[in-house]
Amino acid sequence: MTEVITQTYSDIKLLDKVNAEGFPIVEVPEYNDTRTLKVTAEDLTVSEPVTPEKITEKLKIYGGCFVRNYLPEDVCDQILADVRPHLDSFRPPGDDEFIAQTTKRVSGTCVKSKTAAEKFLAHPLNIAVSNKFLGKENVFRMGVDEVVGGYSAAQHNSCITFSISPGSSNQILHKDDITHHNIKKHQDEYTFGTETALGTVLALKKTTKENGATRFIPGSHLWDHYREPHDEDVVYAELEKGDCFFMLASCYHGGSANVTKDEERIVCILFMTQGTLRQEENIFLGTPIEYFKSLSIDALKALGLQMSQPYCGYWENFDPISLLKPDDEYHHPQFRDHYRVAK
Questions:
Q1: Mind listing the domains of the chain with CATH numbers?
Q2: pTM of the full predicted structure?
């Protein structure tokens, strides 16, 4: 077997036994951290007027927060109208144990709904907060006397619309930063630069504990990699239509059981990631180039079509947006800054 870099496989101990389903049993490191945060919806709600700074402060402390009236109801209705045909035609794969068979989902929502791309993805608060947690800027030495600087903005990672029907059970608590192999250590206070993704959960219909609201564990973004999650520590992201729940991907969360008789819970969940990381969804394969040409430059940047400086994601040595918007006064060079070293 080819040896690869691992931060964790050497931590587990494989025991010589299996469970009733035939899975191997392992021991994992124990971590003695009993911190819990008992919070109310008011604690998690960002006060008016909502600013990126207020959202950032809530996320640092709790890992998640509510922004009420994030988008108008008519915008939510349009997103739902755009994806409804895809929801109605969805057929769940029979071997998916992670998402319930009673849950319908529409991947690539931002290339199936132009409204989602322009109003949800390119929302100024999403862009500002995502760049605060995920954006990067650095300088690099080039040769003897040159220093260059570059900026890498946050980009779209995934955008999926979920419909949870009555009869759905609790989803297993999980972290979405597993996609990028993010291994976090215990933190007493939040440290910037440790996040690989940030999510926003938009309610397209009223979301309650009874119809399947997302449950999440406040403060779990500060936990060690091996601390186990428990349902007694969760809070429920109950939302009115148009409300939004911001959440760091390093927080434990999961969909909830829909115990109602006839209520459909529909949310659109967007995740942003670092501009230097591979996107979870491949939204480019199969999407006509005409669709991208129809979008604003702000939406194209957020989708990840702007080059990450330096030299990441270029097309023919140019920023891809210059291909899509040749008539616009758009310029994004390989380097943001050029300096000379003092002698």
A1: 36-340 (2.60.120.620)
A2: 0.95
